[in-house]
Amino acid sequence: MECGFLSHAEGSCLATAGGTRVLCAATFERRVPRFLAGSGQGWVTAEYGLLPRSTHERTPRETSGLRGRTQEIKRFLGRSLRAVCDLSALGECQIVVDCDVIDADGGTRTLALTGGLCALRQAVAALLAQGAIERDPVIEPIAGMSCGVVAGEMLVDLSYEEDARADTDMNVVLTESGRVVEVQCTAERVPLSRAEFDELLECASRGVRGLFAVQREALRVRERGT
């Protein structure tokens, strides 16, 4: 996690895990979606995209509308970040977290979430320092990890090649206190027993717990450098 990667964003982070890299940027806007107008409540949302040559073959730009996968990941990121935010602390303002995949080698959505939290926390720190908001809306950190069963072995942080061969894959999102925000589990080839599901969830949970230390250190480095 390299925080403060961009010069102009209120918060930013270049998140790297293996061959996957995601650039996350948080932007503060003095407006909210129309359905929140007059409510006194703020909003946190996210955008997600693959750069054309982040993948093995060129991925066309989504100029005529978002593909289904992009929409699904965008919603996954937004609802996960909102799950750990007190939106009333923002007033009628919103923070948009843009997550652009530079290199895709598996686990892009969970890395985008983990880096996106770092970008969000930097933006919040800047807003508090400026007096734009009065209290921190982030209740606690959040992070995500991909995992799966590949050739009978349980693995975390799957690469693209591992994910393509997985019998089962799973994405797990947890808060730092260990509360579950989201679990996405799909049997691609072989269904899991309940005992296997619990074991795979625990593998992912151990991986996620390690990410909180990475986030904290990245934010400390950024704070010392500014």
Description:
Helix content is 34%, strand content 29%. It has 226 residues and is an alpha+beta fold. It has a single domain (2-225), classed as 2-Layer Sandwich (Ribosomal Protein S5, domain 2), CATH 3.30.230. The strands form two sheets. A five-stranded mixed beta sheet has the order 1-2-3-5-4. It has a four-stranded antiparallel beta sheet with strand order 7-6-8-9, with helices on both faces. Helix 2 (108-130) runs parallel beside helix 4. The protein starts with a strand and ends with a helix.
Percent of sequence in beta strands: 25-35%
Order of helices and strands: EEEEHEHEEHEEH
Rg over CA atoms: 18 Å
- What general form does the structure show? globular
Let me know the number of strands: 9
List the topology elements.
Layout: E1 2-3, E2 11-17, E3 20-29, E4 43-50, H1 68-82, E5 94-103, H2 108-130, E6 142-150, E7 153-156, H3 160-165, E8 168-175, E9 180-187, H4 194-225
Parallel strand pairs: 4-5
Antiparallel strand pairs: 1-2, 2-3, 3-5, 6-7, 6-8, 8-9
